[in-house]
Amino acid sequence: MKQFYMAILLLVFPILSTCMENEQIKIDGPFFNGKKEEYYVAAQSQEKKVGSATYYPYRESNAWYLSNLEVEPEYQKKGIATQLLRACISHAQALRATSLEWQVLPKNIGMSKPQLIAIYKQMLAKIDPEFAQNLTEEERGDEYLSRTFMVLKFH
After folding, report:
1. Would the pLDDT of 9 be above 90?
2. Which of 62, 68, 86 is CA-nearest to residue 6?
3. Where are the domains of the chain?
4. In terms of Cα–Cα distance, which of 1, 9, 23, 7 is closest to 83?
5. What is the per-residue burial (b if ≥16 Cβ within 10 Å, else e) of 126-141?
6. What are the tens digits of pLDDT across the range 74-129?
7. Given the DSSP bridges, would you call strands 99-104 and 148-153 parallel, antiparallel or unpaired?
8. Rounded to an integer, what distance in angstroms lies between the CA atom of residue 41 and that of residue 57?
9. Which of 102, 107, 123, 154 is the most buried (most CB within 10 A)?
């Protein structure tokens, strides 16, 4: 049933482009960065990059990690980050990922942490209390206690 809802989300919210005040925003990718062994998608406005998302497989179970999702300040709150995330989800699923996991940091530009978590929950993501158990002290960093770990399971 969850796969059905995910398919509906991906169909209802197209990831190819969006119009913004007579400006066309196009989601390009996925692209592969061989040096870092990660994928990324980009949001483009004419010839200018206005956002991007980076993700990669990181566990033997074929879980994928969303390491970065960013949109330029003047383009925020217009649905671009959601389209970038949907593009990551679609591509990871096509490569047989079992889940996509990420962290919500306490200091996000443009939106509060509770607002972001609410948006992610609308996309069927859940807070994952077990996620942090797999991180080293270095990966956790100074802001560890104020982070929220999210997971979107595909199977």
Report:
1. no
2. 86
3. 2-153
4. 9
5. eebeebeeeeeeeeee
6. 998 899 999 999 999 999 999 999 999 998 876 666 777 788 888 888 888 888 87
7. antiparallel
8. 15
9. 102
Task: Give the type of residue at 11.
Answer: L
CA 75, CA 86: separation in Å to the nearest integer?
17
Neighbours of 73 (CB within 10 A): 10
Assess contact for 127 and 117: CB atoms under 8 A.
yes
Whether 38 and 56 have beta carbons less than 8 Å apart is answered as: yes
Return the H-helix or E-strand segment holding 139. helix 137-140
21-77 pLDDT, tens digit each = 567 999 999 999 888 889 999 999 987 999 999 999 987 778 999 999 999 989 988
Other C-beta atoms closer than 10 Å to the C-beta of 23 total 12
CATH for 2-153 (3.40.630.30, 1.10.238.10, 3.30.450.20, 3.40.50.1380): 3.40.630.30
Residue in the block written with tokens 């209390």: 129
